[in-house]
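Continuing from the previous page...

OK, I double-checked the sequence for Cell division coordinator CpoB against my notes and this is the correct one:
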Amino acid sequence: MKKSLIAVALLLTGAAQAAPAPVEEVGGGGSTADRIARLERIIKARQQSEVDMQQRLDSLQQEVLDLRGLTEQQNYQIQQMLQRQRQLYDEIAKLGTSGTANSVPAQQSVTATTGSTPSSLSETDAYQQAVDLVLKQRKYDAAIPAFKSFISQYPNSTFADNANYWLGQLLYNQGDLTQAKVAFENVVSNFKESGKRADSLVKLGMIAEKSNDKNAARNFYNQVLREYASSAAARIAQQQLAAIKP
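Thanks. Re-ran it with the corrected sequence; updated structure tokens here:
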């Protein structure tokens, strides 16, 4: 799509350069004033043609930028899906080797739905239980203690950054900005390579805005632009920056 738009732009540019201006005979009869007037009309016609072409090029450039942003968002979503697939493969492999795929007692399932994380659950199962409370059961209040329990029990888990982000998002949605800030700061400070770090910085900027700390909000958004310039999070940060009134 990008190549097609660029090709169109080049063709339009070539057309603008090759297209002759309206033909008027500058020489010939008439007074000097008439010849000057005809020459001015030719110049104006060429200038207008250049303006029109520039406007078309500007429009095409904006379309390219929009498509680039859409591509970034789609790539981000694809990466998230691929990550989730890898997690599922790991879960299947662990279940296959442990032989516990169907051995979770009924009492464990009941306890998990209430938001607690039984110590007998594996790391992967405990994390998945908390996620399911959000995505499948829509029990957001119960998911908060489930993620807290998981983070407490598995602070160095490969899912710890995601768990902290989930927790921060749930608390943010509830309006508990203080605790949400702690969760997002944990992602930013302790998981430098996490795919959730840029999003957590954006959330910290939003929390700063809600707390009427515009300078802190700008700092967070600018950090995203510096460290994750080509990410979908950077686009959100740019939008938030533009919306902050002086």
